[in-house]
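Let us practice reading a record.
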Amino acid sequence: MKNTQEILGPLNKLTAQALTERYDFLDEGRLVRKTTFSNGVMVWVNGSADNFTVDSETGGKVILPPYGLLVEAGSFIAFLALKLAGAAFIPRRSCSPSPAWMDSR
């Protein structure tokens, strides 16, 4: 719950008045998506059952686990990822349906 608020609270402030400029499906099953907002905020979400690698301006090759995400908004970056900017992260268990959630700190 704490991680959700720390990510979605700032994201809502950044996107509440912005328009959705692009909504792209990045896989054939349409489960991995990228949303680009009019103020430059970008959000990637992996809704698939497999890891998915996205190319990010800030993080380079980012590996998103199932239910992982990446938010890039200028100085605000949030992620639930296995790898970002060359650093690997170890998944930890939680009570969520996702097998891997990362702390964004």
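A brief commentary: DSSP finds one helix and nine strands in the chain.
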